[in-house]
Amino acid sequence: MKASDIKKGNVVEYNNGVYQIRDIERSSPQGRGGNVRFRFIMYSVPGGNKLDASFDA
Asked: Where is the Translation elongation factor KOW-like domain (predicted)?
């Protein structure tokens, strides 16, 4: 699954845990050759522990 395909509310498996996506930030740097970067705020299911992770598109 690509980072650009993930939406708020999706449930994903990451690092042997199950997480629900609560917030997504997309940053695209200015200039040549800049990669789009996604930052996800996730909460574990069950438990509700917060995890902040960033990925390149």
From this structure: 2-57
